Amino acid sequence: MFNIFLWIFVLIILSIVFANQIDDVYDALVLLRPLPVSFKQSIEKHNGFYQQLPAESKRRFEKKVNQFVRTKQFIPRNLSKVTDEMKALIASAAIQLTFGLPKVTLKHFDRIIVYPDNYYSVINRQYHKGEVNPRLNAIVVSWRAFVEGYADPHDGVNLGLHEMAHALKLENIIQNGEHHFFDLNEYKKWLSLAADEMDKIRKGEDSLFREYASVDEDEFFATGMEVYFEQPHKLFDYNPELYKTLSNLLGQDTIQLYKQSNA
Questions:
Q1: Domain 182-263 belongs to what architecture?
Q2: What mean pLDDT value characterizes the chain?
Q3: What's the confidence (pLDDT) of residue 43?
Q4: What is the CB neighbour count within 10 angstroms for residue 181?
Q5: pLDDT tens by residue, 151-175
Q6: Domain extent listing, the chain
Q7: Beta-carbon contacts of residue 53 (< 8 Å; ≥ 6 apart)
Q8: Which CATH architecture has domain 33-181?
Q9: Residue 227: which H helix or E strand, with range?
């Protein structure tokens, strides 16, 4: 009887290991597939971060976009379908944030829900431009608001980056094998800097960040990422310590990237 239970236990362990190996093989095969030309054209035209990358980094960016698109379920709401352009640009917003974190794929959020415009939430009876719902494993965006976010690459307002930042912050604490990628010391430093800045905003003092950033630390993080990518020099001049802390958390330096691309 003992031997039977032992064999059952061994079979269970082997099935788990084999399942994980299948996932690894699948991911590897996904990365070998070239990014469709239409996807690449959309990114080249609309994503300013990608445009700044050197050639080798662009190829790595494309592979990560390809992996994101092929491992997520894109769900249309009040749309006939989620187009290739939508998939490419939404994926590129996620990769822009995670580019310096090579092992982070936002694994938990495997559903991307796309509305044509602002949508009504029956939960809080308000219209939304986007949200992140960890219970549904979903990132939700209004396509109109997403496009508006990339229309002006220097205004510090970008819905795609904002929602992906929420997902990234949650991914860091969700126990799924992809968590705890933020350096703990840097994160503690960011918490202190964020608290100081939110206090300034609430007191009505001058700040680079809009008022919405003071709602809580989650919104400050998401809003901070918008500013970090769209107004990096302004952020550095305003608060170099905050800029450096965000740079360390993300594993990439936007200002240095732009300097290299313009050299």
A1: 3-Layer(aba) Sandwich (3.40)
A2: 89
A3: 96
A4: 15
A5: 999 999 999 999 999 999 999 999 8
A6: 33-181, 182-263
A7: 61, 257, 261
A8: Orthogonal Bundle (1.10)
A9: helix 217-230
